[in-house]
UniProtKB/TrEMBL annotation:
Modified residues (4-aspartylphosphate): 54
Record's keyword terms, sorted: DNA-binding, Phosphoprotein, Transcription, Transcription regulation
Domain HTH luxR-type, residue spans: 148-213
Keyword Membrane: no
Organism: Streptomyces bambusae
InterPro entries given in the database record: CheY-like_superfamily, NreC/VraR/RcsB-like_REC, Sig_transdc_resp-reg_receiver, Tscrpt_reg_LuxR_C, WalR-like
The keyword Transcription appears for this protein: yes
Protein's recorded name: Response regulator
Domain of life: Bacteria
Domain Response regulatory: 3-121
Amino acid sequence: MIRVLLVDDQPLIRSGFRALLDLEDDIEVVAEAADGGEGLRLAREHLPDVALVDIRMPVVDGIETTRRIAADPALAGVHVVILTNYGLDEYVFDALRAGAAGFLVKDIEPEDFLHAVRVAARGDALLAPSITRKLIDRYVAQPLPSDAGAGLHELTGREREAVVLVAQGLSNDEIAGRLVISPMTAKTHVNRAMSKLHARDRAQLVVLAYESGLVAPRTR
Protein backbone atom coordinates (compact mmCIF):
# COMPACT_ATOMS: atom_id res chain seq x y z
CA MET A 1 0.00 0.00 0.00
CA ILE A 2 1.35 3.43 -0.98
CA ARG A 3 0.99 5.88 1.89
CA VAL A 4 0.46 9.51 0.86
CA LEU A 5 0.60 12.77 2.80
CA LEU A 6 -1.17 15.81 1.30
CA VAL A 7 0.25 19.24 2.16
CA ASP A 8 -1.65 22.17 0.63
CA ASP A 9 -3.20 25.29 2.13
CA GLN A 10 -6.29 25.01 -0.11
CA PRO A 11 -8.88 22.58 1.35
CA LEU A 12 -10.58 22.16 -2.03
CA ILE A 13 -7.34 21.05 -3.65
CA ARG A 14 -6.65 18.59 -0.85
CA SER A 15 -10.15 17.13 -1.00
CA GLY A 16 -9.93 16.75 -4.76
CA PHE A 17 -6.64 14.87 -4.59
CA ARG A 18 -7.87 12.75 -1.70
CA ALA A 19 -11.05 11.78 -3.58
CA LEU A 20 -8.97 10.70 -6.55
CA LEU A 21 -6.41 8.77 -4.49
CA ASP A 22 -9.02 7.07 -2.30
CA LEU A 23 -10.47 5.37 -5.37
CA GLU A 24 -7.26 3.38 -5.83
CA ASP A 25 -6.83 0.03 -4.09
CA ASP A 26 -3.08 0.44 -3.67
CA ILE A 27 -2.98 4.04 -2.38
CA GLU A 28 -3.96 5.41 1.05
CA VAL A 29 -3.99 9.06 2.14
CA VAL A 30 -2.66 8.87 5.70
CA ALA A 31 -2.88 12.58 6.61
CA GLU A 32 -3.50 16.13 5.38
CA ALA A 33 -1.79 19.38 6.34
CA ALA A 34 -2.54 23.02 5.56
CA ASP A 35 1.05 24.26 5.78
CA GLY A 36 4.59 22.95 5.69
CA GLY A 37 5.16 23.02 9.44
CA GLU A 38 2.16 20.81 10.04
CA GLY A 39 3.17 18.69 7.07
CA LEU A 40 6.62 18.06 8.55
CA ARG A 41 5.09 17.03 11.87
CA LEU A 42 2.68 14.64 10.15
CA ALA A 43 5.46 13.24 7.97
CA ARG A 44 7.39 12.30 11.11
CA GLU A 45 4.26 10.82 12.65
CA HIS A 46 3.04 8.79 9.68
CA LEU A 47 6.20 8.18 7.60
CA PRO A 48 4.43 8.31 4.22
CA ASP A 49 5.96 6.96 1.04
CA VAL A 50 5.01 10.11 -0.88
CA ALA A 51 4.42 13.67 0.32
CA LEU A 52 2.51 15.82 -2.16
CA VAL A 53 3.54 19.35 -1.19
CA ASP A 54 2.21 22.64 -2.51
CA ILE A 55 5.10 24.94 -3.34
CA ARG A 56 3.50 28.18 -2.12
CA MET A 57 2.01 28.05 1.36
CA PRO A 58 1.87 30.30 4.42
CA VAL A 59 4.00 29.70 7.54
CA VAL A 60 6.40 27.19 5.95
CA ASP A 61 6.45 26.99 2.14
CA GLY A 62 7.04 23.94 -0.02
CA ILE A 63 10.74 24.60 -0.60
CA GLU A 64 11.56 24.80 3.11
CA THR A 65 9.34 21.80 3.80
CA THR A 66 11.21 19.81 1.18
CA ARG A 67 14.57 20.91 2.58
CA ARG A 68 13.62 19.85 6.11
CA ILE A 69 12.31 16.48 4.98
CA ALA A 70 15.43 15.82 2.92
CA ALA A 71 17.67 16.76 5.87
CA ASP A 72 15.92 14.45 8.35
CA PRO A 73 17.43 10.92 8.36
CA ALA A 74 14.20 9.58 9.85
CA LEU A 75 12.37 10.72 6.69
CA ALA A 76 14.79 9.22 4.19
CA GLY A 77 12.01 7.07 2.74
CA VAL A 78 9.68 10.01 2.08
CA HIS A 79 9.62 11.12 -1.56
CA VAL A 80 8.48 14.73 -1.94
CA VAL A 81 6.52 15.64 -5.06
CA ILE A 82 5.95 19.37 -5.46
CA LEU A 83 2.52 20.66 -6.52
CA THR A 84 2.38 23.92 -8.45
CA ASN A 85 0.03 25.99 -10.58
CA TYR A 86 2.79 27.56 -12.57
CA GLY A 87 4.92 24.92 -14.26
CA LEU A 88 8.70 24.95 -13.92
CA ASP A 89 9.32 28.36 -12.38
CA GLU A 90 12.17 29.43 -10.10
CA TYR A 91 10.41 28.04 -7.04
CA VAL A 92 10.12 24.55 -8.50
CA PHE A 93 13.76 24.68 -9.53
CA ASP A 94 14.75 25.57 -5.96
CA ALA A 95 12.58 22.74 -4.63
CA LEU A 96 14.33 20.21 -6.87
CA ARG A 97 17.65 21.45 -5.54
CA ALA A 98 16.29 21.13 -2.00
CA GLY A 99 15.54 17.44 -2.54
CA ALA A 100 12.17 17.07 -4.25
CA ALA A 101 11.75 13.94 -6.35
CA GLY A 102 9.84 15.86 -9.01
CA PHE A 103 6.85 18.10 -9.50
CA LEU A 104 3.32 18.07 -10.81
CA VAL A 105 1.24 20.88 -12.24
CA LYS A 106 -2.16 20.87 -10.54
CA ASP A 107 -4.12 20.65 -13.79
CA ILE A 108 -2.48 17.32 -14.63
CA GLU A 109 -4.71 14.59 -16.05
CA PRO A 110 -5.95 12.19 -13.32
CA GLU A 111 -4.31 9.11 -14.84
CA ASP A 112 -0.98 10.93 -15.11
CA PHE A 113 -1.29 12.10 -11.51
CA LEU A 114 -1.87 8.56 -10.24
CA HIS A 115 1.00 7.24 -12.34
CA ALA A 116 3.32 9.91 -10.93
CA VAL A 117 2.40 8.99 -7.35
CA ARG A 118 3.19 5.33 -8.01
CA VAL A 119 6.46 6.18 -9.74
CA ALA A 120 7.53 8.45 -6.87
CA ALA A 121 6.65 5.76 -4.32
CA ARG A 122 9.02 3.35 -6.08
CA GLY A 123 11.84 5.81 -5.61
CA ASP A 124 12.19 5.83 -9.37
CA ALA A 125 10.98 9.39 -9.90
CA LEU A 126 11.25 10.56 -13.47
CA LEU A 127 11.58 13.95 -15.04
CA ALA A 128 9.75 14.08 -18.35
CA PRO A 129 11.94 15.12 -21.30
CA SER A 130 10.07 18.42 -21.57
CA ILE A 131 10.87 19.18 -17.94
CA THR A 132 14.47 18.11 -18.41
CA ARG A 133 14.81 20.55 -21.30
CA LYS A 134 13.58 23.36 -19.07
CA LEU A 135 16.07 22.35 -16.41
CA ILE A 136 18.80 22.52 -19.04
CA ASP A 137 17.70 26.02 -19.99
CA ARG A 138 18.00 27.09 -16.38
CA TYR A 139 21.52 25.69 -16.07
CA VAL A 140 22.69 27.49 -19.22
CA ALA A 141 22.40 30.79 -17.37
CA GLN A 142 23.96 29.64 -14.09
CA PRO A 143 27.63 29.25 -13.09
CA LEU A 144 28.67 25.85 -11.81
CA PRO A 145 29.22 25.56 -8.04
CA SER A 146 32.81 24.99 -6.97
CA ASP A 147 32.14 21.52 -5.53
CA ALA A 148 30.07 20.19 -8.43
CA GLY A 149 31.26 16.79 -9.62
CA ALA A 150 33.22 15.98 -6.45
CA GLY A 151 32.25 12.31 -6.70
CA LEU A 152 32.51 11.91 -10.47
CA HIS A 153 35.90 10.18 -10.31
CA GLU A 154 34.27 7.31 -8.40
CA LEU A 155 31.80 6.49 -11.20
CA THR A 156 32.46 3.57 -13.49
CA GLY A 157 32.07 4.03 -17.23
CA ARG A 158 28.68 2.32 -17.19
CA GLU A 159 27.51 4.43 -14.28
CA ARG A 160 28.49 7.60 -16.15
CA GLU A 161 26.53 6.41 -19.17
CA ALA A 162 23.51 5.71 -16.98
CA VAL A 163 23.67 9.18 -15.39
CA VAL A 164 23.79 10.82 -18.81
CA LEU A 165 20.69 8.90 -19.88
CA VAL A 166 18.85 9.72 -16.66
CA ALA A 167 19.60 13.39 -17.35
CA GLN A 168 18.04 12.94 -20.78
CA GLY A 169 14.81 11.83 -19.10
CA LEU A 170 15.05 8.07 -19.73
CA SER A 171 13.52 5.48 -17.41
CA ASN A 172 15.43 2.43 -16.22
CA ASP A 173 13.77 0.28 -18.88
CA GLU A 174 14.76 2.78 -21.57
CA ILE A 175 18.32 2.94 -20.22
CA ALA A 176 18.45 -0.86 -20.32
CA GLY A 177 17.39 -0.85 -23.96
CA ARG A 178 19.91 1.83 -24.89
CA LEU A 179 22.83 0.11 -23.12
CA VAL A 180 21.69 -3.43 -24.01
CA ILE A 181 21.55 -4.57 -20.39
CA SER A 182 18.77 -5.81 -18.12
CA PRO A 183 16.45 -3.31 -16.38
CA MET A 184 17.74 -4.58 -13.02
CA THR A 185 21.33 -3.89 -14.07
CA ALA A 186 20.32 -0.44 -15.29
CA LYS A 187 18.67 0.27 -11.95
CA THR A 188 21.81 -0.92 -10.14
CA HIS A 189 24.02 1.45 -12.16
CA VAL A 190 21.68 4.37 -11.45
CA ASN A 191 21.44 3.57 -7.74
CA ARG A 192 25.21 3.24 -7.38
CA ALA A 193 25.72 6.54 -9.17
CA MET A 194 23.18 8.19 -6.86
CA SER A 195 25.04 6.81 -3.84
CA LYS A 196 28.46 7.95 -5.05
CA LEU A 197 27.19 11.42 -5.93
CA HIS A 198 25.12 11.67 -2.74
CA ALA A 199 21.93 12.27 -4.73
CA ARG A 200 18.70 11.69 -2.83
CA ASP A 201 16.80 10.62 -5.95
CA ARG A 202 16.77 10.82 -9.73
CA ALA A 203 15.76 14.47 -9.77
CA GLN A 204 18.85 15.41 -7.79
CA LEU A 205 20.92 13.13 -10.00
CA VAL A 206 19.79 15.21 -13.00
CA VAL A 207 20.71 18.39 -11.13
CA LEU A 208 24.17 17.02 -10.30
CA ALA A 209 24.72 15.81 -13.85
CA TYR A 210 24.40 19.35 -15.17
CA GLU A 211 26.06 21.09 -12.24
CA SER A 212 29.11 18.87 -12.56
CA GLY A 213 29.40 19.26 -16.31
CA LEU A 214 28.98 15.53 -16.90
CA VAL A 215 26.10 16.51 -19.16
CA ALA A 216 26.36 19.89 -20.86
CA PRO A 217 23.54 21.74 -22.63
CA ARG A 218 24.29 22.12 -26.30
CA THR A 219 23.98 25.86 -25.95
CA ARG A 220 26.28 26.15 -22.96
